[in-house]
């Protein structure tokens, strides 16, 4: 009990200190740059708890889990797509850069040992992860009165589909609509579909549900009109501890989705850009139709064609020590500047689209890419 009270007290202190000041669109990092928070100005929170690949030797292994490959890129691509499609607005983004065998922040608040073990630095990272989420959660509530938390995961199940979890299990999804309707209070979208007045069945599995919209765009998803209830033999993740915690089942006005994207949708180069754009479009439609939000922030006006043309890829990313790194761009690159998380310039490259990771210590870097057109793009690089 004393340990739980201490963790809660630490979390309150962290939230208070983090809330002090931040700027929309700027990355803020916890200790050792393991947890990243990019504040937004939309009622949308995107969280990637299993995105990282950092494995510092100072942290003991707590399990044998790997990462959800592709979820970091998906979170950042979604952020960029939402930025351009929503009139310059930005979602809140929280990313865990540690591999899940070092930090697995998806368990209940009372189960810190399973999430982080007993190492003080790992426990601190766990607290910072949840503190950043709470800051975003409180900010959305204060600014908009309601909103939605999207947690990104990956799956490699035999069904080759997305699982859109809203707290309703597959055993319930196969029941009649009249029975499913009685389960709204058990869902992570309770506020939206009770006080908010949205149709529960439509939000859950209708044509304007997130699963329904993704499925109609060719990304097989359940539940949806085509796949309203997974078969008994199918794997279906319908919620996680974080979606219970930050969704509206117990209290509050922020709803939550546990999204398990099929890994090939995120990782394959032929799919990744289109999937992230389609997911961003679907989320915007979902928020407009069911919440009544419209988005138009007073910043840049960039066309969708320009977004596609300006997309830049860095690979391999994460990179290893002394590895050749390539930047793929449709425009000629004139200069590349690499900064660490303290803003120190670590490397400068001119008129080249590749460079070596030599002399870059393990960690997270901001890559500033200047194009011949005069435009400047920013990407993230992880060296491990």
Polypeptide structure, described:
With 384 residues, the chain is of the alpha/beta class. The chain has two domains: 310 residues, Aminopeptidase, CATH 3.40.630; 72 residues, Immunoglobulin-like (Sandwich), CATH 2.60.40.1220. Helix content is 34%, strand content 21%. Strand 9 and strand 10 form a beta hairpin. Helix 1 packs across helix 4 and helix 2 packs across helix 12.
Low-pLDDT runs of 5+ residues are 1-13, 15-19, 299-308
How do the strands of the widest beta sheet line up side by side?
1-2-4-3-5-8-6-7
Secondary-structure element string = HEEEHEHHEEHHHHHEHEHHHEEEEEEE
Proportion in β-strands: 15-25%
The number of distinct helices, counting runs of at least 4 residues, comes to 13
CATH fold group of the largest domain: Aminopeptidase
Which geometry do the CA atoms define?
A: globular
The total count of strands amounts to 15
**Class computed from helices, strands and strand pairing:** alpha/beta
CATH top level of the largest domain is Alpha Beta
Relevant terms:
alpha/beta; Aminopeptidase; Immunoglobulin-like; 8-stranded mixed sheet; 13 helices; disordered N terminus
What's a concise summary of this model?
The protein has 384 residues and is α/β, with parallel strands linked by helices. It has helices at 2-19, 71-85, 112-116, 120-144, 170-173, 177-181, 190-193, 200-205, 210-216, 241-246, 263-267, 269-291, 304-310, and strands spanning 28-29, 35-38, 44-48, 92-96, 147-155, 162-165, 221-222, 254-262, 313-315, 324-328, 333-340, 345-350, 354-356, 363-371, 376-383. Residues 1-13, 15-19 and 299-308 have low confidence and may be disordered.
């Amino acid at each position: 009990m004393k340990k739980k009270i201490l963790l809660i007290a630490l979390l309150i202190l962290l939230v208070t200190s983090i809330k002090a000041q931040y700027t929309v669109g700027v990355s803020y990092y916890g200790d050792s740059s393991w947890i990243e928070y990019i504040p937004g100005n939309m009622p949308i929170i995107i969280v990637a708890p299993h995105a990282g690949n950092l494995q510092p030797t100072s942290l003991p292994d707590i399990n044998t889990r790997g990462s959800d490959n592709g979820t970091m890129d998906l979170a950042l691509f979604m952020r960029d797509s939402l930025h351009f499609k929503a009139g310059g607005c930005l979602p809140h983004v929280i990313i865990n850069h540690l591999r899940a065998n070092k930090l697995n922040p998806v368990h209940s608040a009372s189960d810190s040992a399973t999430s982080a073990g007993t190492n003080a630095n790992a426990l601190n990272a766990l607290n910072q992860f949840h503190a950043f989420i709470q800051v975003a959660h409180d900010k959305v509530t204060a600014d908009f009165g309601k909103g939605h938390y999207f947690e990104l995961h990956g799956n490699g199940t035999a069904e080759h589909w997305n699982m859109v979890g809203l707290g309703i299990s597959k055993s319930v999804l196969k029941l009649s609509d009249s029975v499913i309707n009685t389960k709204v209070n058990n869902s992570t979208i309770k506020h939206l579909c009770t006080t908010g007045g949205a149709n529960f069945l439509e939000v859950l599995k209708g044509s304007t549900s997130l699963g329904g919209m993704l499925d109609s765009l060719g990304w097989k998803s359940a539940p949806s009109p085509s796949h309203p209830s997974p078969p008994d033999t199918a794997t279906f993740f319908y919620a996680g501890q974080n979606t219970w915690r930050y969704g509206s089942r117990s209290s509050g006005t922020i709803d939550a989705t546990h999204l398990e994207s099929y890994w090939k949708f995120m990782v394959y180069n032929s799919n990744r850009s289109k999937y992230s754009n389609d997911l961003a479009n679907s989320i915007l439609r979902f928020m407009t139709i069911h919440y009544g939000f419209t988005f138009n922030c007073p910043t840049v006006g960039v066309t969708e064609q320009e977004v596609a043309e300006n997309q830049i890829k860095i690979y391999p990313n994460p990179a290893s020590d002394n590895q050749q790194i390539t930047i793929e761009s449709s425009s000629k690159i004139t200069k590349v500047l690499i900064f660490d998380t303290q803003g120190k310039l670590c490397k400068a490259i001119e008129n080249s689209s590749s460079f070596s990771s030599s002399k870059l210590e393990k960690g997270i870097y901001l890559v500033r890419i200047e194009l011949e057109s005069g435009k400047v793009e920013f990407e993230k690089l992880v060296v491990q």
